[in-house]
Amino acid sequence: MPPLLSVHGLTKRYGARIGCADVGFDLYPGEVLGIVGESGSGKSTLLNCLAGHLAPDEGQVIFDTRAEGPRDVLQMSEPERRMLGRTDWAFVHQNPRDGLRMRISAGGNVGERLMAVGARHYGDIREQALDWLGRVEIADERIDDRPSAFSGGMQQRLQIARNLVTGPRLVFMDEPTGGLDVSVQARLLDLIRGLVRRMGLSAIVVTHDLAVVRLLADRLMVMKDGHVIETGLTDQVLDDPQAAYTQLLVSSVLQV
Amino acid sequence: MIQVEDLAKNFTLHNQGGAVIPVIEGAGFSVAPGECVALTGESGAGKSTVMRILYGNYLAQAGSVRINGIDITRAEPRDILALRRETLGYVSQFLRVVPRVPTLEVVAEPLLALGRNEGEALDRARDLLTRLRIPETLWSLSPTTFSGGEQQRVNIARGFAHAYPALLLDEPTASLDATNRETVLSLIEEAKAGGAAIIGIFHDLDARERVADREIDVSAFTPRAA
């Protein structure tokens, strides 16, 4: 089985400063990769380079496309990359406002993604939107409400529904549970885990929350100053960290 | 089924002056299918450390651990995950789950992860929870709210949901009453009869006597202070 995503030598500089340097990894279908590190470690830069929001200076991001097999996303034309972003890829932003259209209804937010890939039948679109609102535990009668009338946790769940409705194969998540109450976080984690398993998704999750990656990620990448300093099985990296920085990171977490 | 050769482990504490603490040296043993081996040795001898290396939770500095032919000390994360899904089970002393997930699903999860049919997985989970006397009224609740003994039993139910060919048990009978202890011991005996290779830590001497075919004293692998 070929990797779904294969990244080689990815480097992004901001002038003389390093965003991320020489990052490489393979992600296989169904795998969840966690990227952890403190603010400024380069994890968000890396995620944005992978997802095509930022242009890296060097490297390759090879995605196993449905139609043509492995292709370097960085060499694709802009329309091709945008199409990928609407179909096989999804991006869940930390702030749901960045991933939602706040002026259209919840149902419209989900339906819009479907229309972008060619759905035209109103009844079908509304039915699929309802199905997805149900999956992310948003009540049917809220379908015509705007997301601005939703709580933060509901907005985040709506953003996930909007992203997953087209059946993507790879989901990028930037601090998906950041800024939410702890009780809401647990609910969202449970939801994401269930969706990942049932849909066989692969995901790359950037977070500074080690508890989140322990429950969500199969593998972990630890970043510091733009460099990957440690990788491995999630529980192994957290329970037997090798690098000095990872040891510090893990031992700094308050135990509950 | 399980072959350990010349295993060594030390911890390097980078944030405490780079102290290097050797904990295991020259560990070697093997466990055949249908055999149960008890790790013994006083507290701090390294029993749990050995278990964790065997599960791929701790890295080893030297040596190898072959489980069903795969060297877990060198395998890629995804191969270790596949091994843990299909071949290698581990019942730790603590239950670690996503809050909010109902007990029934927590127990059925290893089977669902293997792609088993949902009905079959849930039936197996109900059967185990019944045998371990978790009242049916609790099945739809998250085990995070349960008492220590109940959590321990949910953890055991989960560990035995799939018939792993290799099984690691860390004090499976600790904090259980006599009836539940009996159930756990029969689960272990059934797994043995089914051909599982089992390694266990049992502080409960009668339990060890009953299920273990032989003992391995881990203090033989404790590095002597130079």
User: How widely separated are the two ends of chain B?
Assistant: 35 Å
Structural class of chain B: alpha/beta
- Percent helix of chain A, as a range, is 25-40%
Regions with little confidence, pLDDT below 50 for 5+ residues of chain B: none
Largest sheet of chain A: 6 strands, mixed
N-to-C series of helices and strands of chain B = EEEHEEHEHHHEHEHE
Average pLDDT metric of chain A: 90
Shape of chain B: globular
Textual characterization of the structure:
The complex is a heterodimer of chains A (256) and B (226). In chain A, 38% of the residues lie in helices and 26% in strands. Chain A contains ten helices and ten strands. In chain A, α4 packs across α5 and α4 (106-116) runs parallel beside α6. In chain B, β1 (2-13) and β2 form a beta hairpin. The relative contact order of chain B is 0.20. Classes of the chains: A alpha/beta (256), B alpha/beta (226).
Task: Write a concise keyword list for the protein shown above.
heterodimer; A: 256 residues; alpha/beta; six-stranded mixed sheet; four-stranded antiparallel sheet; 38% helix; 26% strand; globular; B: 226 residues; Rossmann fold; five-stranded parallel sheet; 7 helices
Condensed summary:
The complex is a heterodimer of chains A (256) and B (226). Chain A is of the alpha/beta class and 256 residues long. Chain A contains ten helices and ten strands.
Describe the secondary structure blueprint for this structure.
The complex is a heterodimer of chains A (256) and B (226).
Chain A: E1 5-14, E2 17-27, E3 32-36, H1 43-50, E4 58-65, E5 69-72, H2 78-86, E6 89-92, H3 96-99, H4 106-116, H5 122-135, H6 152-164, E7 170-174, H7 182-199, E8 202-207, H8 210-216, E9 219-224, E10 227-233, H9 234-239, H10 244-251
Parallel strand pairs in A: 3-8, 3-9, 6-7, 7-8
Antiparallel strand pairs in A: 1-2, 1-4, 4-5, 9-10
Helix pairs in contact in A: 4-5, 4-6, 5-6, 6-7
Chain B: E1 2-13, E2 19-31, E3 36-40, H1 47-54, E4 62-67, E5 70-71, H2 77-86, E6 88-91, H3 103-113, H4 118-131, H5 148-160, E7 166-170, H6 178-193, E8 197-201, H7 205-211, E9 214-217
